[in-house]
Amino acid sequence: MKDNRAVRKWEFRFIVVLLLLVHGGVLGQGLRIDPPHWYAGMSGDSLQLILCGKGVGQGRVRLEGADGVKITNQKILSSPDYLFVDLEGIHRIKPQTCTLQLELGGKTQRIPYTFHARRTAEQTGRGVDASDLVYLIMPDRFANGDTTNDRVAGMQQTEIDRTNDIARHGGDLKGIIERLDYLQELGATTLWLNPVQENDQPRESYHGYAITDHYRIDPRLGTNQDYLALADSLKKRGMKLVMDVIHNHWGDRHHLNKNLPDSSWLHRWPAFTRTSYRASTQIDPYASSADAQLMKTGWFDTHMPDLNQEDPVLARYLIQNNIWWVEYAGLDGLRLDTYAYPNEEFVNCCVAELTRVFPLLGLVGVVWVHTVAESAYWVKGNRLNPRPQALPGVTDFPVYRAIMAGLQEAEGWDEGMRRIYYTLAQDGLYGSFPVNHYIFLDNHDVSRVYASLNGDLDRMKMAHAMLMTLRGIPQLYYGSELLMGNHAGLGATNVRQDMPGGWPGDQVNAFKRDGRTRDQNEMVDYIRRLALWRQKNGRLMKEGQLLQLVPENNLYIYFRQLPDRGIMVVVNAAQKAANMPLDRLAELLNGVQAMKEVTTESQQLLNEPWAIPGKSARIYEYQKITQLNQPGRP
After folding, report:
1. Which burial class, exposed, middle or buried, applies to 28 when counting CB atoms under 10 A from its CB (0-12, 13-18, 19+)?
2. Distances from the Cα of 194 to the Cαs of 122, 173, 209, 314, in angstroms?
3. Average pLDDT of 188-208?
4. If you count DSSP H runs as helices and E runs as strands, how many of each does the chain have, helices first?
5. Is 140 helix (H, G, I), strand (E, B) or coil?
6. Are 555 and 572 a contacting pair, CB within 8 Å?
7. What is the CB neighbour count within 10 angstroms for residue 302?
């Protein structure tokens, strides 16, 4: 019995150490290791460990119990409080816990380091594609499922104030998990959360974009295990999860920023210098070098130091962190924030490495620009950038801007619905069908779509009909289905409202039908019908060729088609009804006698005239068509 108790006592201590490793990598005596663990059989042959602790750079490490893996390099940079250890032969190791033996100051510390088994291909990196519907959530503003983590002792911002746009409101991961039924019933297949890693900043820590610990979920949102529980809950429902990652900057209270391993990790100026946010300088052949440099190396904000990804050690740290999270939670995709800001060679290397390790992983880069040319510049296979790019898709701001303007303008030579037509007519610049772009009507940085369309429910439906049927991956922003409004103010803090019913004591619960207004239910029902229809037509959404007609009288008609079936989408942005131009459709719909409207399931014969009501959209599906003739297509 005594021996058994001793074994159990040793096992308990071992488990405690492993838990500390998993949750941030902090070990005894102030020592920390990043990454906190790794994965056996990971493709690639090397791993960079960062040992963090007072004077640890003066130590040396030996590796025990890891057959086939060896230490090839140990180095310090500027700070003596970091030791960088390179391991090689990682792909040969089996799942196990080995020992890092740290010799420092005449003492030896034995540190267990675990290589976990990798997930199966079905469990991770499944990808996000045009058959999906992405639902964007700002976790602090969606639902509060655990009030005990609203205030976490020891963190710099502990207050909760739901009346203040820049304060924390208390939403968390558990609140999201508890409302997955609502999201699945709405038709969402994929969740994208604004960054969930720790943001231990003294103010504005709610949005997640000033990370202070890359390996730890913010305790006010939950724990690493809570994030894992969310990922697993989604998998059980056949849903997916996308993580928001930032390579351009981190929070100034980041644990590595407080004592930089090396001064070269940050871009430095004589005084605080903000980026110009002008991504156009990266494509502009006439841009001054000073303008281009300011955009790339200026700080995003006073509390967001700009990272120098040209430093190979920092670059490796960031890429390894991305790989770690994908494997840890079985992520299906990553949203790469501020993609045009970091070093171009780095972002291409990052995307290439992620794609090598996770071939199906869904990757999208945020390129907030106004023109198709600026957007295409960053995409794989584009016809503008002489330097090869690796990114498969971007957030499609040009299409967003075209839809918002086109739905409100009177028809002109290139205004009204023709604005959308002309934007899509430039898709050839991408070099291939841009099916991996995220298309959207709003997000956490721009005005709510309902406000942009001046509270017009008809135009909301028209916008969502296009969102659900144009090429690319559609993305909804939380609460927009409930007709949340507001034009984005400075910093867009006022478009990050709380979901009604997400907090204990809320007087209105919009997650339930009886807690919504008639117009809200009408919008929710419309989105749900289209979303569920999309789920049944995934191949058409992924592979269906796009063909559009030049709009006439603000009537925009386009097709998505496969050899055996397709859809025709008709958007009438005019106030009055418009007769269908049957003469223009005759060649295109050769062999089609009847169609069914998707939202009403009404039948429409093609041998009789019909009209499309003003301010409305119709989606007609048909089968057994003749291949559409498209001469001159790219």
Report:
1. exposed
2. 25, 12, 8, 23
3. 98
4. 15, 25
5. helix
6. yes
7. 9
SS (H, E, C) 49-64: EEEECCCHHHCEEEEE
C-beta neighbour count of 462 within 10 angstroms: 24
Beta strand spans in 66-151 (E): 70-75, 82-88, 96-104, 107-116, 134-137
φ, ψ at 426 (rounded to 5°): -95, 10
Residue 23 pLDDT grade (very low, low, confident, very high; cuts 50, 70, 90) = very low
Q: How far apart are CA 99 and CA 115, in angstroms?
A: 11
- Give the tokens for residue 617: 């959209």
How far apart are the C-alpha atoms of 364 and 274, rounded to whole Å? 25
Span 294-300, average pLDDT: 97
d(CA 488, CA 438): 20
Which two structure tokens, joined as six digits, stand for 211? 């990370």
Angle at 87 between CA 83 and CA 92, to 5 degrees: 160
Tokens of 455: 């509270």
CA dihedral 220, 225, 353, 99 (to 10 degrees): 120
Give me the DSSP letters along 510-546: TTSGGGS-HHHHHHHHHHHHHHHHHHHTHHHHHHPEE
601: left (phi over 0), alpha (psi -120 to 50) or beta: left
pTM of this structure: 0.94
> DSSP states of 577-596 as a string?
-EE--HHHHTTTTTT--EEE
Residue 553: burial class (beta carbons within 10 Å; 0-12, 13-18, 19+): middle
The residue among 396, 418, 22, 433 whose CA lies nearest residue 227 is 22
Residue 445 to residue 495: CA distance in whole angstroms:
8
Query: For residue 121, what is the DSSP state?
Result: T
Residue 479 backbone zone (phi > 0: left; psi -120 to 50: alpha; other: beta): left
